[in-house]
């Protein structure tokens, strides 16, 4: 009998976690692309609970239906940060689970991806 190599199914998650760590350690000057990628990762899997669970955002491939469709709402980054810090309605606050830099990254990503960035 031949043994097949095992695949590491944790690879994707490990990469996501690594991205979050790298993104946090770097300064904002390391570029928009890096921050937006970090924001997307937080949106889809990194935040606890992930935004994708409750929100639809086309760019992130998410179809959550608990909260407003972000593609329609088109919030500015400031509006997202406010919601993340204090929570709003059924949405939990992320003030104790995300750093300020992480909240900013996810906010900038949502604003940009939804068309709310100006
Ligand atoms: C448990 C479900 C849930 C999760 C997880 C969640 N949200 Fe929400 N979100 C909601 C609901 C419900 C509302 C509407 C609240 C209201 O207006 O009463 C909302 C509202 C918002 C708004 C609009 C705020 C405003 O000013 O009207 C933004 C922006 C937003 N969420 C972004 C996010 C982001 C980014 C994340 C992840 C870090 C996230 N949400 C995670 C449920 C969720």
Description:
The chain is mainly α and 118 residues long. The protein has a single domain (11-114), classed as Orthogonal Bundle (Cytochrome Bc1 Complex, Chain D, domain 2). 50% of the residues lie in helices and 3% in strands. The protein is built from five helices and two strands; from the N terminus they run ααββααα. The chain has helices spanning 11-25, 32-46, 70-73, 77-86, 100-114; strands at residues 56-57, 62-63. It has a two-stranded antiparallel ribbon with strand order 1-2. A hairpin with a 4-residue loop joins β1 (56-57) and β2. The longest helix has 15 residues, at 11-25. The termini are far apart. The model is unreliable at 8-14 (pLDDT under 50). It binds heme C.
Topology of this protein?
Blueprint: H1 11-25, H2 32-46, E1 56-57, E2 62-63, H3 70-73, H4 77-86, H5 100-114
Helix pairs in contact: 1-2, 2-5, 4-5
Bound molecules: heme C.
Keywords:
118 residues; mainly alpha; Cytochrome Bc1 Complex, Chain D, domain 2; 5 helices; binds heme C
- The separation of the N and C termini measures 61 Å
Indicate the CATH class. Answer: Mainly Alpha
Number of domains: 1
**Overall mean pLDDT:** 85
Tally the beta strands: 2
Poorly predicted residue ranges = 8-14
The gross shape turns out to be globular
CATH topology: Cytochrome Bc1 Complex, Chain D, domain 2
Structure summarized in a few sentences:
With 118 residues, the protein is mainly alpha-helical.
């Amino acid at each position: 009998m031949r043994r097949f190599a095992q695949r590491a199914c944790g690879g994707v998650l490990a990469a996501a976690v690594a991205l979050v760590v790298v993104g946090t350690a770097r300064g904002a000057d390391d570029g928009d692309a890096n921050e937006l990628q970090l924001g997307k990762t937080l949106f889809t899997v990194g935040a606890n609970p992930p935004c994708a669970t409750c929100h639809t955002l086309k760019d992130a491939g998410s179809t959550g239906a608990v909260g407003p469709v972000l593609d329609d709402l088109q919030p500015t980054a400031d509006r997202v940060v406010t919601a993340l810090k204090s929570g709003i309605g059924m949405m939990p606050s992320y003030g104790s689970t995300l750093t300020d830099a992480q909240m900013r990254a996810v906010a900038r990503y949502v604003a940009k991806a939804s068309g709310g960035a100006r």
